Amino acid sequence: MHSDTRIVGRCPQCGAAIDPGRVIIRYERTDGEAMYATCPDCRDVVRPERSD
After folding, report:
1. Which residues are CB-contacts of 50 (< 8 A; sequence separation ≥ 6)?
2. pLDDT for residue 1
3. Would 11 disulfide with which of 16, 22, 23, 36, CB 3.0-4.6 Å?
4. What count of other Cβ atoms lies within 10 Å of the Cβ of residue 30?
């Protein structure tokens, strides 16, 4: 079985890595892409912070 180790960002509250399977919504903005996801640790809906 293949395990996806990519992350889309980190939780701004606790710093946990957020993988693509936790993304709830992803959309385009004039300043780039934005998304909301469920944090695996604190279980809140957050806007992941990118490290790139």
Report:
1. 8, 9
2. 45
3. 16
4. 4
